[in-house]
């Protein structure tokens, strides 16, 4: 393992520990720890640490996973935009988090930070970073949306005056259900292939990725504290389950991380920990005009500048 890979791995493991400590304090329940190793007889080799909570006081289901894997052939999801890397051997590591709170007024949230290296059969090795975080409310609050986006903006401010705006737009475009013609949530920031074209130095790309990961708890926990004790009933839980179906659709159809894990022969239980525990689908259902549920579609899902 290269010095760079060792450096990134150490930070990722520490980030996972610190995020879990914050989430356990918020929930009041411990996360399960499941360490795993994939040996040379496996198609994908490496190790990881799955941290999961189910039926917690705050989180109905959630996980924050670390993985570090190596393979002989980069899967299609990782080389779709880089034909020159098709078939290259690779090494990938990252932390991926999804939290599904029980209270429908507390939003679902996602974070991922990752580091790849690939070695084509002909040519030099290539490295890149990717990641981001995004928020998926069921009942929106402008104060929460502004806080989440402001935290993302401030984290990226040292990396260029236009970086946050570009990565926010990228997030809006990426977390979009094309078959539904609607957003999954209210976005955040998203970036990928940072450093792959050789125009960004390693320290710059790594620092930016760290800034995103380090901002997560500040972006999310204040929202949790504001909304966790709001009263709710069966109507709100029913709508939450319906909207969770959109989360499932996106992750299984479009999400590059999920597809990478499944295509590369990754650990299925860890990959699918992002799935919510209770989900509903309905045929051609629409919320009543003027209802709190309709407001999500009219006021929150369409991309907008929350800091204007």
From TrEMBL:
Region (Important for dimerization): 247-282
Pathway: Porphyrin-containing compound metabolism; protoporphyrin-IX biosynthesis; protoporphyrinogen-IX from coproporphyrinogen-III (O2 route): step 1/1
E.C. designation(s): 1.3.3.3
Name used for this protein in its record: Oxygen-dependent coproporphyrinogen-III oxidase
Binding site residues for substrate: 96, 112-114, 265-267
Active site, renumbered: 110
Amino-acid positions noted as binding a divalent metal cation in the UniProt annotation, renumbered to this chain: 100, 110, 149, 179
InterPro entries: Coprogen_oxidase_aer, Coprogen_oxidase_aer_sf, Coprogen_oxidase_CS
GO biological process: protoporphyrinogen IX biosynthetic process
Protein family per UniProt: Belongs to the aerobic coproporphyrinogen-III oxidase family.
GO cellular-component term (any): cytoplasm
Coiled-coil ranges (or none): none
Cofactor(s) this protein requires: a divalent metal cation
The organism of origin for this protein: Methyloversatilis universalis (strain ATCC BAA-1314 / DSM 25237 / JCM 13912 / CCUG 52030 / FAM5)
Pfam families, per database record: Coprogen_oxidas (PF01218)
Location in or out of the cell: Cytoplasm
PANTHER family referenced in this protein's UniProt entry, alphabetically: COPROPORPHYRINOGEN III OXIDASE, MITOCHONDRIAL, OXYGEN-DEPENDENT COPROPORPHYRINOGEN-III OXIDASE, MITOCHONDRIAL
Reported function: Involved in the heme biosynthesis. Catalyzes the aerobic oxidative decarboxylation of propionate groups of rings A and B of coproporphyrinogen-III to yield the vinyl groups in protoporphyrinogen-IX.
Site entry (Important for dimerization), positions: 179
Domain of life: Bacteria
The reaction(s) this protein catalyses: coproporphyrinogen III + O2 + 2 H(+) = protoporphyrinogen IX + 2 CO2 + 2 H2O
The protein's assembly and partners: Homodimer.
GO molecular function: coproporphyrinogen oxidase activity; metal ion binding; protein homodimerization activity
Gene: hemF
Keywords tagged on the record: Cytoplasm, Heme biosynthesis, Metal-binding, Oxidoreductase, Porphyrin biosynthesis
């Amino acid at each position: 393992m290269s010095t760079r890979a060792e450096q990134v791995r150490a930070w990722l493991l520490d980030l996972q520990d610190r995020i879990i400590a914050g989430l356990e304090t918020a929930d009041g329940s411990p996360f399960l720890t499941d360490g795993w190793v994939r040996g040379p007889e496996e198609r994908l080799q490496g190790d990881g640490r799955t941290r999961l909570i189910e039926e917690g006081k705050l989180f109905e289901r959630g996980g924050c996973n670390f993985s570090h894997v190596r393979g002989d052939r980069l899967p299609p999801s990782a080389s779709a935009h880089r034909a020159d890397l098709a078939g290259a051997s690779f090494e990938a590591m990252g932390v991926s988090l999804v939290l599904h709170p029980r209270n429908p007024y507390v939003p679902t949230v996602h974070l991922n930070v990752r580091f790849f290296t690939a070695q084509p059969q002909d040519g030099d090795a290539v490295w890149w970073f990717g990641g981001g975080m995004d928020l998926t409310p069921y009942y929106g609050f402008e104060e929460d949306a502004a806080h989440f986006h402001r935290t993302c903006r401030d984290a990226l401010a040292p990396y260029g005056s236009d970086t946050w705006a570009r990565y926010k737009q990228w997030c809006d475009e990426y977390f979009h259900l094309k078959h539904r013609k609607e957003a999954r949530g209210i976005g955040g920031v998203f970036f990928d292939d940072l450093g792959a074209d050789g125009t960004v130095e390693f320290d710059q790309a790594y620092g930016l990725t760290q800034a995103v990961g380090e901002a997560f708890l500040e972006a999310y926990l204040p929202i949790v504290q504001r909304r966790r004790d709001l009263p709710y009933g069966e109507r709100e839980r029913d709508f939450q389950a319906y909207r969770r179906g959109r989360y499932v659709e996106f992750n299984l159809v479009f999400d590059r991380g999920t597809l990478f894990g499944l295509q590369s022969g990754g650990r299925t239980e860890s990959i699918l920990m992002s799935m919510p525990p209770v989900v509903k689908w309905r045929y051609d259902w629409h919320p009543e005009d003027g209802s709190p549920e309709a407001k999500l579609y009219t006021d929150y899902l369409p991309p907008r500048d929350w800091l204007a």
